[in-house]
Design a protein that fits this description.
The structure is a homodimer of 460-residue chains. With 460 residues, chain A is α/β, with parallel strands linked by helices. Chain A has 17 helices and 20 strands. In chain A, strand 12, helix 7 and strand 13 form a beta-alpha-beta unit.
């Protein structure tokens, strides 16, 4: 079976057996079957538990061998010692996709390591594949599948996650990213490359996030990632950088963290964009979902605060963007707005044109915005804006921002002042601009949009 | 007059003249007098404007020379060309503190630079000091003073800001920091050292933030900062790092940005803690206000997610903290909780003790927390916690956290999951723990608490 068809059994099963289904039901019961029912998974469900006759009004089978129908996916949720035999039974039933939830395998002691090897051996001999162990399994908001033992909020966002943890499925602090998720756990068999190939042509998924503790099949990963990265941006959070992190990685998923520089070089080589913390996932994913790519490294800055403009330039230097040199045409449009003592350029500090030269806000702002967007040297734009007090109509901003749609250039924004939340939510609805909580993060997101442009253009 | 008495005229004036007071009143009028009235400033106010007889029902004087009473502070808010004469009039009235709001001085063209020199010369000859130009002036939530032309929300937080911008007075996106603020603007006369000496013994202020574009009086700054830093933590955001930033600094406040490495070394030498963006201001200031110092570099990690523990270790390496080596006593307490295959240590992944070994949450969590806090090798603690679904009582956490009060060690937290906001706000109320939005930021804040410990201990 090829990798995509194999992964479809994990991600889009028509029937799922829950082996070791818990009899405890209701909120807080950590019951996988309950979560599948709550999520309204439409496929067939088969609870397996020798000590129960019914769970959640469903017939419960003593063994997977007793289930009368075909099973696409088996989820084994039992203590570790029972797993080898249960995997063997699954292979006898020709179940080709087996998720092993149990902890304490290669992430535990020597006995656990041996058990894990045995599980892999049995599955291979029987022609089945294992996801995990030590995993939430798979989650798919597009068909309401979840094999996680914690209840999840799923949304049909076009983001696919391949992780060695359930952390990103349970919810990042600032946003829910879960469109489709594959928790590799200890990654004893199903690996990153399998997940990447599944997402490669998946029409539901536009951005791929990786959480990597260790990659075993380095060559295959490189080959697949290089190919997939040309179609969809791949962001990777590689953890376990130092000695302590590497040791902790060993006891978390039994992975070998490896030299951080090796991963760094490998990601660069195959066009995977590395991120450094969970907030960068959110920031950069949002940029890819909402904004056009940045086709050069020239940034334009329109600001109501000179100090904010300077902080932006510091961030540009950090993230390797450069201040766009404005064309004479742009400069003359800006010059007409400035008071005599100001040479308005880039960054364009538009406070004085309004407050000193007395031009009205929407004239100054829309002239500057249009001039910057039309300038061929400006490849992306950051707007630094004071979120006015309520008496100044925030809606004014909405009209001005329409001009952005005429240009294929990314525009990001940082807001300050008393009405940040209101204005941010209004701008969020326009859909053509992303507001970031700091200037550093806004510039970083723009920079990644150019990184990916370079990746698909193959300049690297 | 010494620097503190001089600054008191700017920060705690009993009487203020607003020279060039605007006749436009009401919301959005950018009227300084209006804002002082709205803020309920208790001192005497004298509007000065030759074209008005009354503003906001107050008698308006044609010139400051006509005001019958003593004036502590004059705020000159007129076009730049009028400023030299008005400063001269102030000196004749023996007004010792003069705030010049106008833009377009050293931040503008050659004519502006000359005007600024003239203003300084006139003030010095007349025995007065200038704050600004190009400034919001001073803000003091403790006596309801604001000379800003934008309306501000002031709170009596024990944070003093000395900045070359009004940006931080208008409000950072995520929190209001304005206890007392001094906007140096172009800093033609009143400098950072003056502000630092004012805050040095100010009982209202516990943390000092600097926003620096350029410091002229380097030697005096170093001498004062070194002294003040031993009493109160000083955080500095130095902007204008690269060439573009330096150019923009020149046109923002006429400051010379200087070599970034020189500032870096100078800050280190005098015990000023450098921050890199506005979110770090907020993070670190909160840590200093709410948490004890970290008296060593050993960190303890208690987590419900192994992946989160590893991300924390990466951050520890980045911020030069090290994983505490637990004492045998702590290890034996933890060992009693773990399933046989787990060697529970630091980070302590307490998921398996609950889910596999079956110990109840509060036993596991409070035992681990108390053991870590009591361990002499643990100098600070990070808790990584799953914000449960509502059916699991969040209040449970509150009881457990009480143990923190018995130890003089900083505890920070990162939350993930569906109920992050509810749990964060509950934990925020306990007052003895700070929740950060990312692991990187949580670890960074802890690290700064140790940096400052080293500064006051003089190990550096």
């Amino acid at each position: 079976m090829n990798s995509v068809d194999q992964m479809k059994l994990f991600m889009e099963p028509r029937s799922v057996a829950i082996i070791g289904a818990s009899r405890a039901t209701g909120p807080g019961s950590l019951n996988i079957l309950q979560h599948l029912v709550n999520a309204r998974f439409a496929g067939r469900l088969y609870p397996v538990n020798p000590n129960a006759r019914k769970i959640l009004r469903m017939k419960c089978y003593p063994s997977v061998l007793d289930v009368p129908d075909n099973i696409d996916l088996a989820v084994i949720s039992t203590p570790r010692s029972l797993v080898p035999q249960l995997v063997e039974e699954c292979t006898r039933r020709a179940i080709r996709a087996i998720t092993v939830v149990a902890q304490g395998l290669a992430d535990g002691d020597e006995e656990g390591k041996e058990l894990q090897s045995e599980i892999v051996r049995i599955a291979r001999e029987g022609g089945s594949r294992i996801l995990g162990p030590n995993t939430f399994g798979t989650v798919n908001a597009f068909n309401n599948l979840t094999t996680a033992f914690l209840e999840l909020e799923m949304k049909k966002v076009p983001i696919g996650i391949i992780a060695q943890t359930g952390l990103f499925f349970v919810g990042l602090p600032m946003c829910s990213l879960l469109g489709k998720g594959i928790d590799l756990g200890n990654a004893c068999d199903i690996e990153f490359a399998d997940g990447l190939e599944y997402f490669e042509h998946d029409p539901d998924i536009r951005v791929i996030l990786l959480h990597v503790e260790g990659i075993r099949e380095g060559r295959r990963f490189m080959e697949v990632a290089r190919r997939v990265a040309k179609r969809k941006p791949i962001l990777a959070l590689k953890t376990g950088k130092g000695d302590e992190g590497a040791r902790a990685t060993q006891s978390h998923t039994g992975s070998l963290a490896g030299k951080d520089e090796v991963y760094d070089a490998a990601f660069k080589q195959c066009g995977v964009i590395r991120v450094n913390d969970v907030d960068e996932y959110e920031d950069v994913a949002k940029a890819f979902l909402r904004l056009p790519l940045m086709k050069g490294r020239g940034i334009g800055v329109i600001t109501l605060t000179g100090a904010g403009g300077i902080i932006t330039l510091d961030a540009c230097e950090k993230y390797n963007l450069c201040l766009a040199k404005l064309s004479p045409d742009t400069l003359s449009k800006l010059g007409a707005l400035a008071p005599p003592w100001q040479s308005l350029g880039n960054p364009a500090d538009i406070w004085a044109p309004m407050m000193i030269a007395g031009h009205p806000f929407d004239e100054v702002f829309s002239t500057t915005l249009a001039a910057f967007l039309a300038d061929p040297n400006v490849h992306g734009l950051i707007i630094i804006f004071y979120a006015f007090s309520p008496e100044v109509p925030i809606s004014l901003m909405g009209g001005v921002l329409k001009v952005i749609d005429r240009f294929e250039k990314p525009v990001v924004c940082w807001l300050y002042g008393p009405k940040v939340e209101q204005l941010a939510s209004m701008m969020d609805k326009t859909g053509n601009i992303v507001v970031y909580p700091t200037l550093d993060r806004a510039v970083r997101a723009l920079s990644r949009l150019n990184d990916y442009f370079q990746i698909i253009e193959g300049d690297r």
